[in-house]
Each structure stands twice: as C-alpha cells, then as structure tokens.
C-alpha cells in the first residue's frame, strides 16, 4: 500500500462529471492491425513493469487521510484493453470524432485508472491505440517514460512471458485507520524535512531577490486585460483535434530569431489564439491569453517514477500584438524572466506547503478551485518531449502520436505538444458546445509557424 502525494491527490479530487482528469494520446501505427487478443497478452506481459496499472485508489470517509494505492483483488485486463472500429472510410475526421468521444468518458474510479483502445478501420492499412491514464497516476513526462516501457524499441523484440500475479491482501478497516493516523502524524514532519531542500533551490540572497522581483512580475501579468470567451461553463462533451509541425523547421526558426524551441511553439500558439479571438470579434490592443505552462521538476534519477513531478508557471500570450516577430520576442522575454527568477521553483514550494493541509481540506480546496469562476487563466499549454527513436508494438512501427490533456472547470481550451521522431504534434482539447470554431485555432498554429519561416501540416 502506498499513499498518494499531495499533487497526485489534488488531481484525483478535482475530477467531477464534467471534468475527467486523465491524460491521453492517440498513436497511429503501420499495418496490419494485430489481433485484439495478441494486444491483450502483450499488455499483460508488460504489467509487471508498471505495478500501478493493477492498483486502485482507496479513500476514507470525509477524506480524513490521504488516498492510497492498493492492489485490485479483482483485476481483469480485458476490461482495460478494449477494441473498437473507426467508421468508414476511416479518415482523419472519423478518427478525430471517435477519439473525442472516448477521451470525454471518465475512467472508472472503482478500477485501475487506465484504458487502452485498439482502433481498426483506418484508411491506408493503418491502425491506432488510444491511451488514457489518470493524471493522479502520472504527469506528461512520466507518461512518456511509461510509453517507452510498454512499447518496444526494436521491431523484433521478444515478447516477455506472462508472469503469475497475486494481489496483496486488502487491509481491514481498523488497520487502514491506524495506518492513516500514523501517516497524518509523520507526513507534516516529512514535509518539514524536505522544505530546506526546496528552499535551497533558490540559492544565494541575490537569487532570492530575483525571485521576489519575479513574483512582482507575475502580479503585473495578472493585471493585463485578458480574453473573456475562453472562460465559462463547460459540459461533458469534447472536441479534440490535432495539427503537426516539422521539428527541423521549428529549430530553423529558433536559429534565425533566437529563443528556445518552446518559445517558438508558444509564439505559434499565440497566433492561433489571436486568429480565434479576431474571428470572434474580441481582439484588442494589449489583449493577452493567460496560459498555465506546466514545467517538469523531475530529476535525472526520477525518469521512471510513476507519480507527478510537475510545477507550473503563468505566462501571458500576447495575442493583441500584430507583429509576429514582436510576439516571439515578448514570449521569449517573459519565459526568460520566469526562469531567471525561479518562478517554477516557487510553485513547487507552494505545492509542498499544501502537504501540511489535511486531505479533507485539500479535497474541498481542489474542488472549489475548479468550480469557482476565475478570469486569471484562459488555457493550459504543455510541451512534453517524446522519443527521437521509433517505437513499436508487436513489430508494427508507430507512425505518429497526438497528445490529449484535459480541460478544467470554466477553462474551455487546453493545448498539448508532443515531439516524436522529426515532428511536433499539437493536440487541442475543447469544450464541445462553447468552442465550435476549434478549426480556426488549429489552422492558426500552422499560420503562426509559417509567418516565422516554418512549414506546417495537418
């Protein structure tokens, strides 16, 4: 049995009927498609490498203690590895619509929080896998590590033999309560022990001063006028679409204009939101779209850890700026300042401090944060680096992978970027009813890269 971390528990508690909190991807493979039973056997053989995939979440009444992971005594892999067909003719539109419906469905919280869907019927003798993993299990970077564990890196890789598995026996209620009491006593002490390590990341007094200036800059960013139609009520249904970009072209833009690859991608997304708001008649000078930008704080020795090791910073996407190079410069200047003043570390410290809160208050606070109207954040933009080497399942090569990230309550659009081989994939998740114009946003990413000197595809 293992207790959830503070951040993992937060992702677990904020979920409700209109806000499924799983991450996902759509991976497309060369054909022919494998038999469903072969795929089930392959996943079964790989499960010993990811024990969390056979565990369920147990909570206590009123969330008095932190949620815990326990073995699922009734685990059945056939429930998790599913099978569906893309409607004819199996093109991008049919695949996108089916994926959006699957991504919109919540995972069953009474079972291990993951699903894999084998999709047949794609045009061009291709097939696909949709993966769904709850955010309380893993962040984007950790999810990529899991993908490389579950997938093969060699088309001729031997399939591991299935291993018999016996779940750990469940604990009695009295034992769970006693363990929860012990954890409630020792958890704050462990947080206090870890606090100096977090604070040491801020370094010298000069760096502490810079950190303070960074907080002032963050407060100023919150004062900028922001788009209003990106916030509001959401329903249970989703639109989801993707577009792609060449890695070499994005790197060429970076070499020509400076900054980082992430700066270039954020600038392209800024153009996309500019187009969307202009089309809606909302664009004005000085307008911004405030984006939460997750930042991995995963150490080099934490590559395979199945948990969340992520912080986040707030960035203003300058959609009101008409000049594309100026937009890129503003994004670059802002992101440089965030890094220079250790704002991602400050967010991690805040998350660590939440560890002192009783799980009940963490649960209530997490839910309230997602339900109370807030104009501060309009979107989430996350960039997860994927493998530069090909991945395989049962000898079939993965041709492309498109990411999915959830939207939050009153936050209608989120953007995920995933790199694989020589391309970037942008996966956009949107509320179905309030974002009927998602195609404008998708097209704007390509236009944003084109105006900076890159090529794009869809």
Task: Describe this structure as you would to a colleague.
Helices cover 39% and strands 22% of the residues. It is globular and about 60 Å long. Strands 10-9-11-14-15-8-16 form a seven-stranded mixed sheet, with helices on both faces. Helix 6 runs antiparallel to helix 11 (343-354) and helix 8 (247-257) packs across helix 9. With 458 residues, it is of the alpha+beta class. The chain is built from 13 helices and 16 strands. Strand 12 and strand 13 (396-404) form a beta hairpin.
What kind of sheet is the major sheet?
7 strands, mixed
Could you report the average pLDDT, rounded to the nearest whole number? 80
Quick one: overall form? globular
User: CA-to-CA gap between the ends?
Assistant: 45 Å
Structural class: alpha+beta
Radius of gyration: 22 Å
Record the SSE blueprint.
Blueprint: E1 2-3, H1 6-13, E2 22-30, H2 36-46, E3 55-58, E4 68-71, H3 77-80, E5 81-85, H4 92-104, E6 114-122, E7 126-134, H5 140-150, H6 173-200, H7 205-223, E8 238-246, H8 247-257, H9 261-279, E9 289-296, E10 310-317, H10 324-340, H11 343-354, H12 359-371, E11 379-384, E12 392-393, E13 396-404, E14 413-420, E15 423-431, H13 438-451, E16 456-457
Parallel strand pairs: 5-6, 9-11, 11-14
Antiparallel strand pairs: 1-4, 2-7, 2-13, 3-4, 6-7, 8-15, 8-16, 9-10, 12-13, 14-15
Helix pairs in contact: 1-12, 6-11, 8-9, 9-10, 9-13
């Amino acid at each position: 049995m293992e207790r959830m971390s503070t951040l993992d528990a937060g992702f677990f508690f904020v979920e409700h009927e209109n806000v499924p909190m799983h991450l996902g991807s759509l991976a497309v493979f060369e054909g022919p498609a494998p038999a469903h039973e072969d795929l089930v056997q392959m996943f079964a053989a790989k499960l010993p490498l990811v024990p969390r995939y056979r565990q369920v979440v147990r909570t206590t009444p009123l969330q008095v203690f932190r949620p815990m992971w326990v073995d699922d005594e009734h685990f059945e892999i056939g429930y998790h590895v599913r099978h569906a067909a893309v409607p004819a003719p199996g093109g991008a539109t049919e695949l996108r619509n089916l994926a959006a419906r699957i991504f919109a469905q919540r995972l069953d919280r009474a079972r291990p929080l993951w699903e894999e869907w084998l999709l047949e019927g794609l045009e061009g003798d291709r097939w696909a896998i949709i993966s769904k993993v709850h955010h309380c299990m893993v962040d984007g970077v950790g999810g990529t590590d899991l993908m490389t564990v579950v997938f093969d890196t060699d088309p001729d890789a031997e399939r591991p033999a299935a291993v018999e598995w016996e779940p750990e026996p469940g604990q009695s209620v009295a034992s769970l309560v006693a363990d929860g009491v012990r954890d409630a006593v020792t958890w704050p002490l462990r947080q206090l022990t870890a606090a100096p390590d977090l604070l040491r990341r801020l370094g010298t007094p000069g760096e502490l001063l810079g950190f303070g200036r960074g907080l002032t800059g963050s407060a100023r960013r919150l004062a900028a006028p922001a788009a209003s139609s990106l916030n509001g009520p959401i329903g249970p249904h989703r639109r989801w679409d993707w577009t792609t970009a060449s890695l070499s072209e994005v790197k060429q833009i970076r070499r020509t204009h400076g900054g980082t690859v992430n700066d270039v991608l954020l600038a392209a997304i800024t153009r996309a939101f500019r187009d969307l708001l202009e089309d809606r008649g909302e664009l004005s000078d000085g307008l911004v779209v405030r984006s939460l930008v997750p930042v991995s704080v995963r150490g080099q020795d934490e590559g395979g850890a199945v948990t969340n090791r992520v912080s986040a910073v707030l960035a203003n996407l300058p959609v009101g700026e008409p000049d594309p190079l100026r937009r890129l410069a503003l994004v670059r200047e802002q992101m440089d300042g965030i890094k220079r003043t250790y704002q991602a570390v400050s967010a991690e410290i805040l998350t660590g401090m939440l560890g002192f809160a009783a799980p009940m208050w963490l649960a209530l606070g997490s839910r309230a944060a997602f339900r109370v109207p807030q104009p501060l954040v309009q979107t989430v933009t996350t960039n997860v680096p994927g493998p530069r080497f090909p991945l395989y399942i049962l000898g079939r090569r993965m041709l492309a992978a498109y990411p999915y990230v959830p939207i939050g309550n009153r936050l209608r659009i989120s953007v995920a970027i995933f790199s694989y081989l020589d391309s970037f994939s942008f996966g956009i998740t949107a509320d179905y009813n309030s974002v009927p114009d998602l195609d404008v946003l998708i097209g704007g990413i390509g236009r944003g890269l084109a105006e900076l000197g890159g090529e794009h595809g869809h």
